[in-house]
Each structure stands twice: as C-alpha cells, then as structure tokens.
C-alpha cells in the first residue's frame, strides 16, 4: 500500500547510497561523490520548502526504519534538541526520537515535555519523523501538538503512549482530549505501536462524580484520546488506540482525512467510547480497520460530507451512526455518505441515522451497502425521535432525511430487522430498500419479526426478508416531496 506522506525521493536515494557506502567502507569513490552530491541536493531541498518535494514519492513502507539505529538513539540522557545539521549525514537528523529529547520511556516518568520538544524541532523540517520507539512506554499528559509544520511530517508510534491513569491527574484544561493535533497539514501518524487512554477510571459513576466535584463540570466532559482540529490532509494508519476515557479518534473541522488499518479497542461496557467521530469534516476515507468499543464504531456528525467508510469490522459497539443530529433545535447538515463492506457482530445497531426532534437541516445522499450483520439488535434504523432521557418533548421541526439507499444488508438480528421511524411532520423521502435479507438470530431471539416504517417514503426491491419489508415504505407523491424539500432547503448548503 502506498503511503500518503513519504519522504522526498532524493532522501531515500541518498540513504541507499549511504548503506552501500557502509558496506564497501569507502572503497568506492563514486559513492563518496554521490554522497556529496546528495548532501548538496538535500540542503537545496530544505531551502525549497517542499512544494517540489511533494511531487516526489517513495513507495517503501516505513522508509526511515534503517536509520533508526544509526543516529537517533545515541544522544546520552536528556539532551538539548538536536537541530538537524546539514553536514555529511543529513539523513540522520530527519528522525526526531523522543528519547533524544529527554524522554525516559519507563511508563512512569512524565515524558510530555520530551514529546513536545521533539515535535517542535521536527515541525521545522520538511519530511521529518517524530519517533516513539518500540519497547518503551511513555506517560504523556494532555498536550497539544500544533502546526502548521513543514510538509510530510510523520509521527511514528512504534512504542506505547500512556495517558495518566487517574482522573485526578488530568488538568481542567485537558478534559477535552489527551493528544490534540491542531492546525496540522500534510501529516501522518503511523506505526506498530499503540495509544492507551487508560480510561477505566472515567467509565464508572464514581469517576463522573469526581469530575463534577473537582471541576464543577458537566459530566459529559471526558477526554477524547486522539483529536484533530482544523487539520487537513492527515493520514492515521496502522496504530492501535485503546481504552479512551471517551471517544478514541476525533476529527473536527478538518478535511482530506485518511484512516487505514487501525485498531480501536475498549470494553463493550465503557460508556460513550466512540471509535471514530467526525464533525464538520469533509473528504474522508476510513478503511480496513477493526473497531470494538462501548459506543458507535464510527459516528458522523453535523457538517460532514463526502465520507467513505469501508471494510470495517465493528463490534462490540453501537454500529455505524449518523447523528444524533439536531439536538436543542440546532441545524444539522450531512450529505454524500457511503458506508459499504462493513461487518458488524453483536452490536446495538448496524447502520443508523438518529435525529432529535426539533432540529432543522438535512441528511441527504447516503448509501449503506454490503452490510453484514451477525446478532445485531437493530440492523437498520432511522430514529427521528432520538432521546437520551425517558421522555423528550414532542416537537414539530425535524432534520429532513432524503435519498438513503440500503443495498444488500444481510445476516441476523436479535430485536427488530428494520426500524424506520421518521418524523411525524417531515417524512423521510427517497428511501431505497434493495436486497435486505435478515433472519432472527438463532439463540434466544425475543424481538419483533416485523419491519417498522413510519412516515417513510420510497421503494423496495426483492429479495426482501422478512417479507414485511416489502410493504413497509409508502409510495411517494408530489406533495410529500414538496414538504420534505421545503424543510431540507432552508438551512444547508446545496
Ligand atoms: C490537500 O491535498 C490536496 C490534494 O492532494 C491539495 O490540493 C490541497 O492543497 C492540500 N491541502 C492542504 C491544506 O494541505
Ligand atoms: C497494518 O498494521 C500493522 C501494524 O499494526 C502492520 O503490521 C501491517 O503490516 C499493516 N497492514 C497493512 C496492509 O498495511
Ligand atoms: C452522492 O454521494 C456520493 C459520495 O460522496 C457522490 O459520489 C455522488 O456524486 C453524490 N450524488 C449526488 C446526486 O450528489
Ligand atoms: C408525543 O407524541 C406521541 C404520538 O405522536 C404520543 O404518543 C406521546 O404521548 C407524545 N409525548 C409527549 C411527551 O407529549
């Protein structure tokens, strides 16, 4: 798989030269010549702030691995930030190892300052790599790693980053998130390591009580493990994120996001521990990842468009969700969403759209296809009466839902195969149900075998199982479309 970030080609070429130089130990003067030329080009590359460099791509996975042993670990003890020196071995300096910046890596000492220092130094260098080395554990307090930085910055996490385990160790300013990336562009996180939010203390009622007492804070305020804010062209791949106090990976007001081959893991019983949460974020691809957590595996919130989620294993958790949207009469706009080739095991819902009564705005052009469910309570849900309390007031406005296609939803359910509860006042329109084949799960089934559709318009196409899906949707008329359109139009960009 080709990487997004990549070092300038000239550097990897030069690295090859360097290796051959070591093997032949100066025997080949041509190599020396190329080294010299390479170094010169490297300096020029630096000066040219990488608009050019972006065009060069190396296709090697983790191209800097070879370098790791050759220069990055040899700074003894806490050292001042080693600035890249533009001498004969410039490739060494492209790695900014936290150990060289004073990190202990013992899992107990606070290594936040070292990580910040490594980040600051790397940020100034095009194609730099901040290295979290394997076989070490780094305790990191809540921090913000801020851009803008030079292009192609990589955070290579091969070791383990640990969040403070006690609720009391989190400062008030750190309650939003643990690792906060702000204003980063053209940036990659990758590696075989993991982020451990050590969040269990936050999941219990006593943890919530502690926060209320200490911070006089809304108990919903719990840290997200890894958050990106106003960041663009970001890739997160290969890493594992576990046991977050709340959401594991969040993108807020961002664009050009790629998530690939990551693992997210927290217990089914951990409350509100969403896997990946998107908000005001556009142009996203999330793929080939395993997500098991206590809430939505992927949650798509207002302001999101052009989101492609595919090849995800989800479970335990609450499934793939759009919303809840329109809380407290807010405007919600979500469009152009494709969720496909998803496998869900033992989740609350499969694919779900949930909105609060009283909201405005629209959800449109959404496709859910090739969804495999196994023992999922509600494989298909639209819930426009979403309410997190016992009773929510009935209200007339609603986020208008239109153009939702369900194609090939197959497997077993444990409560209800299909549940489309649309607003009394704003119908769901242009809903397509194609090839839905859902059987009650074999053990201990105790639900409803009937599909439910309320104020939902559109068409269905065989095969449909249970057969009640066939006559669930109502046929659209011009007036229904007009009502739906008039609600959808007034608040979202077209
Ligand atoms: C993001 O990438 C796109 C396409 O590669 C490019 O056009 C755009 O300028 C980049 N934006 C930022 C902020 O780096
Ligand atoms: C996925 O990530 C793991 C590390 O977590 C890595 O070993 C593996 O090679 C990656 N797979 C792909 C296809 O990139
Ligand atoms: C619906 O969304 C998909 C995915 O973003 C996009 O390719 C397609 O053009 C959209 N269709 C319409 C009619 O906007
Ligand atoms: C809301 O409306 C439904 C029927 O549309 C009704 O059954 C329910 O009692 C109402 N709830 C409240 C709190 O008024």
UniProtKB/TrEMBL annotation:
> Might you name a Gene Ontology BP term for this protein?
carbohydrate metabolic process
- Extract one GO molecular function annotation from the record: polygalacturonase activity
SUPFAM superfamilies, per the entry: Pectin lyase-like (SSF51126)
State the superkingdom: Eukaryota
Where in the cell is the protein located? Answer: Secreted, Cell wall
**By its UniProt entry, which InterPro entries does this protein fall under?**
Glyco_hydro_28 (IPR000743), PbH1 (IPR006626), Pectin_lyas_fold (IPR012334), Pectin_lyase_fold/virulence (IPR011050)
Parts of the chain that traverse the membrane: 30-51
Classification via Pfam families? Glyco_hydro_28
Region described as Disordered: spans on this chain: 57-83
Where does the record place Basic residues bias? 57-68
Q: Which UniProt keywords apply?
A: Cell wall, Cell wall biogenesis/degradation, Glycosidase, Hydrolase, Membrane, Secreted, Transmembrane, Transmembrane helix
Record family assignment: Belongs to the glycosyl hydrolase 28 family.
This chain's protein is named: Polygalacturonase
Record organism: Salix dunnii
């Amino acid at each position: 798989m080709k990487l997004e970030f990549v070092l300038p080609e000239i550097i990897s070429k030069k690295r090859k030269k360097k290796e051959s130089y070591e093997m032949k130990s100066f025997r080949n003067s041509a190599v020396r010549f190329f080294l010299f030329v390479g170094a010169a080009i490297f300096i020029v590359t630096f000066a040219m702030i990488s608009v050019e460099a972006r065009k060069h791509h190396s296709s090697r996975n983790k191209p800097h691995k070879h370098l790791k042993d050759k220069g990055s670990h040899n700074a003894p003890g806490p050292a001042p930030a080693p600035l890249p020196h533009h001498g004969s071995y410039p490739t060494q300096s492209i790695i900014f190892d936290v150990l060289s910046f004073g990190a202990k890596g013992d899992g107990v000492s606070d290594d936040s300052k070292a990580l910040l220092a490594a980040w600051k130094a790397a940020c100034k260098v095009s194609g730099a790599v901040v290295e979290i080395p394997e076989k070490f554990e780094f305790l990191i307090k809540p921090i913000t790693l801020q851009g803008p930085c030079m292009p192609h910055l990589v955070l290579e996490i091969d070791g383990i980053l640990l969040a403070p385990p006690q609720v009391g160790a989190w400062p008030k300013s750190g309650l939003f998130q643990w690792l906060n990336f702000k204003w980063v562009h053209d940036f990659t996180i990758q590696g075989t390591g993991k982020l451990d939010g050590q969040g269990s203390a936050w999941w219990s009622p006593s943890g919530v009580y502690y926060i209320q007492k200490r911070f006089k804070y809304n108990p919903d305020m719990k840290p997200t493990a890894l958050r990106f804010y106003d960041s663009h062209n970001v890739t997160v791949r290969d890493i594992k994120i576990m046991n977050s106090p709340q959401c594991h990976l969040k993108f807020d007001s961002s664009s050009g996001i790629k998530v690939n081959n990551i693992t997210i893991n927290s217990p089914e019983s951990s409350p509100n521990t969403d896997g990946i949460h998107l908000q005001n974020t556009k142009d996203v691809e999330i793929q080939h990842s395993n997500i098991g957590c206590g809430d939505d595996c992927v949650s798509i919130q207002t302001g999101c468009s052009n989101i492609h989620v595919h090849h995800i294993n989800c479970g335990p958790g609450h499934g793939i969700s759009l919303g809840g949207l329109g809380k407290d009469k807010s405007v919600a706009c979500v469009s152009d969403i494709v969720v496909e080739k998803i496998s869900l095991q033992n989740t609350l819902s499969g694919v779900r759209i949930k909105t609060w009564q009283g909201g405005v705005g629209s959800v449109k052009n959404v496709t859910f296809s090739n969804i495999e469910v196994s023992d999922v309570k509600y494989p298909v849900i639209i819930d426009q009466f979403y309410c997190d309390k016992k009773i929510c007031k009935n209200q007339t406005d609603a986020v208008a839902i239109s153009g939702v296609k369900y194609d090939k939803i197959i497997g077993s359910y444990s409560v209800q195969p299909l549940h489309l509860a649309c607003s009394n006042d704003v119908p769901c329109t242009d809903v397509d149900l194609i090839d839905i084949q859902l059987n009650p799960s074999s053990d201990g089934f105790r639900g409803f075998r009937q599909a439910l559709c309320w104020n939902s318009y559109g068409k269905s196409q065989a095969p449909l199982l249970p057969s009640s899906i066939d006559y669930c949707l109502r046929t659209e008329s011009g007036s229904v479309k007009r009502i739906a359109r008039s609600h959808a139009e007034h608040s979202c960009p077209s």
